[in-house]
From TrEMBL:
Keywords: DNA-binding, Phosphoprotein. InterPro entries: CheY-like_superfamily, OmpR/PhoB-type_DNA-bd, Sig_transdc_resp-reg_C-effctor, Sig_transdc_resp-reg_receiver, WalR-like, WH-like_DNA-bd_sf. PROSITE patterns: RESPONSE_REGULATORY. Residues 3-120 form the Response regulatory domain. SMART domains: REC (SM00448), Trans_reg_C (SM00862). The keyword Cell cycle does not apply. It comes from Chitinimonas lacunae. It comes from the Bacteria. The modification 4-aspartylphosphate is found at residue 54. This is Response regulator transcription factor.
Amino acid sequence: MLKVAVIEDDLPTSRQLRGWIESARPGIRVDQWFNRDEAEAAIAREVYDLVVLDIELGRERHAGVAIINAINKRHATPVLVVSAMPATIYRSIMKALDAWDYLQKATFEESDFIETFLEILRAAKDQRAAPPAGAPLSLDPLRQSTPTWRAQRINLPLTAQRILATLYQNRGQVVSYEQLFQVVKSGRNRDNVRKHVSTIRDAFREVDPDFDCIENVPMRGFRWVDPPASQDR
């Protein structure tokens, strides 16, 4: 039986999240915890398949950060953060802590939550074949491991990771906008895809200012081009 922990101090929100989870995957066990002490005690004795948590619990503004750290010390449990904190600020912070995805309260629908929740469960179960030996890029989007470029972590949100994986799996070939629409949860239009690709490039250039492996193909899409072997330092 799959086990999920919902760590949320607001009772109506906790009940809503539990209801969505149970409707998405009947028969799942959902444990509800309402403060940091309860949550950390549960994490110490249980191995969950997924943890859904808020950052702010009661008067502890960053209790969720401490809980994620506690999870990382014990198990490689996927964490989905659901918080009212602004995503523009906290998404990258949570990703740096190895949270798998971030949803900002009042900005998503039930269908968005369920799709993200089920995708993380599938990603945690499956594994993707390792990249070729010596390849500068290492990513495992199914397990949702943090991608690395030349052994340095690349901080990317989930949708950007899916786009990156699609481009890399089809490296050397043009990946059309229509193909990329299939891995974008919402905003399936060219402008939104271009924004995600820009996010990917910016993240790579934070660790490698010379990164230039994603080519624009006007009117068609994008293409991943491996760097020359001499650059694989």
